[in-house]
Design brief:
The structure is a homodimer. The first copy, chain A, is an alpha+beta fold. In chain A, about 25% of the residues lie in helices and about 30% in strands. Chain A is built from seven helices and 16 strands. In chain A, the strands form two sheets. In chain A, strands 8, 9, 10, 11, 12, 13, 14, 15 and 16 form a nine-stranded mixed beta sheet that branches. A six-stranded antiparallel beta sheet of chain A has the order 2-1-7-6-4-5. Chains A and B meet through strand 3, helix 1, strand 6, strand 7 and helix 5 of A and strand 3, helix 1, strand 6, strand 7 and helix 5 of B.
Chain lengths: ~270, ~270
């Protein structure tokens, strides 16, 4: 079921700037018994991302009501919210009078093998490199061709995710996930002020580390540092935390801190 | 009038990857008595851009037929063609079975003051800088947030266009146009292999220069070289060729080569 500006619809106007220019933002949120998990954080991120683009953020109460409606069709599925700048005359200039388009839908949950969580995943390095754009870095906007190009690089089902580097050799993220490494009991996660998407689960892990007295550095991570890490995780709201088992010939066993972090995430996933 | 995959429609499915990820390309083409100008070049560019993204390009005959249909409503207007990868399951990976979405529409022509052509334009420098992404450079794809951000920087009607630099200080293009400078009778236009959109009119000018024995260099152009140029043009399929009259305090008179080039463009605009 899909709601477009509150109406049951399966289509958006051809003139929507989300289609013309990718002029909008989105969220994907797991549902649990019809309830969007970590809603407070997801809404805060949606509002912040809308703010970067200068798009008025939809009202939180309305979004919650619409999520409750669409969740009935997929109560254990995924909610997707898209907010675009709306329709307007041709041309890049954002029209002053545009009414944002608000799309709320529930989708079936992607089924991943249980061993991705229990035993870890195999990961590849993508040849697609992320461009540096500080104005848009961190934002989950609708300009996602780099992710599409990167994800098109492989089709082997045994490879769960691909890593993206920036053009200076820093590792930034997976095609659909953020990353952490553990070195001597200390977490590190890439600085996303020049490229990448800063996800809600990344924030939650940074905070959980702080609460439990575990060091967590946000910094540029040279690609070759991955090999020497004791643990290597990929995270997002839908997969939770996957430990990397295999990457370019290096093998990791599931690490204790990753297991502990997953428990912490499970404990506070309201 | 709008045709979506050949059907009269004013909407596209919410699940279209053009909306979700900007996963597609587009063209805007002036119509003259219902005929799309420079069609051969526009179609070649559409096919080339589709090729970069791995999207099957629509059949030329079908596009011509659909253009003829929509042009009836705006015979002196603008044709817009959007080709997206189509609808598919959630996730960045391009589905193998997706059918591209083909959108063909005719729009009213934007009215610019006649003096923009006769007397030249005032141009500003945008603070938005283009990210370097060689994989997508030159392609007119649907990820256009940089253009939107740049065009949102000013609202004064007296300023016709804004210039975009890359992050290394090279001038690349206008928000909706390509650029040329003239120095000692020689043309130069920015190298677009790392960012920017390579337009059809830019190609036409490069070829016209060659045909008429005028030198034309494709190269990195440092921003401050603009000030010393004898002529400075901004070009695209809809505006033709605008000479820059004023930019950051420097004033240019309409140049003879620009006037000549506009005549050459007018002569072979089929």
């Amino acid at each position: 079921m899909i709601l477009v500006n509150g109406q049951v619809r399966d289509a958006v106007p051809v003139t929507d700037r989300g289609l013309w220019y990718g002029d909008g933002v989105f969220r994907t949120i797991p549902l649990d018994a019809g309830r969007p998990l970590c809603w407070v954080r997801h809404f805060a991120k949606l509002r912040s991302d809308c703010g970067v683009l200068g798009i008025p953020c939809p009202d939180e109460i309305i979004l919650r009501e619409e999520l409750a409606v669409v969740a009935r069709s997929e109560p254990s599925g995924i909610a997707k919210i898209i907010v675009t700048r709306g329709s307007g005359a041709r041309g890049y200039r954002p029209p002053r009078s545009a009414m944002p388009t608000r799309i709320v839908m529930a989708l079936e949950r992607t089924q991943y093998p249980a061993e991705f969580t229990s035993g870890g995943i195999k990961v590849r390095r993508c040849s697609t490199q992320l461009a540096l754009q500080p104005l848009l870095a961190g934002v989950k906007h609708l300009n996602r061709l780099e992710n599409v190009m990167a994800r098109a690089e492989w089709s082997e089902p045994s490879i769960a995710e691909g890593l993206l580097l920036d053009q200076e050799g820093n590792v930034i993220e997976g095609t659909m996930s953020n990353l952490f490494i553990v070195e001597n009991g200390i977490l590190s996660t890439p600085d996303l002020r020049r490229c990448g998407v800063a996800g809600v689960t990344r924030d939650r892990i940074i905070e959980a580390a702080q609460q439990h007295g575990i060091g967590c550095k946000i910094e540029n991570i040279r690609y070759d540092r991955l090999y020497g890490s004791q643990e290597f995780w990929l995270v997002n709201s839908l997969i939770g935390l996957w430990q990397v088992r295999e990457f370019e010939g290096r093998i990791w066993a599931p690490g204790a801190l990753g297991l502990q972090m997953r428990r912490w995430l499970d404990e506070e996933s309201d």
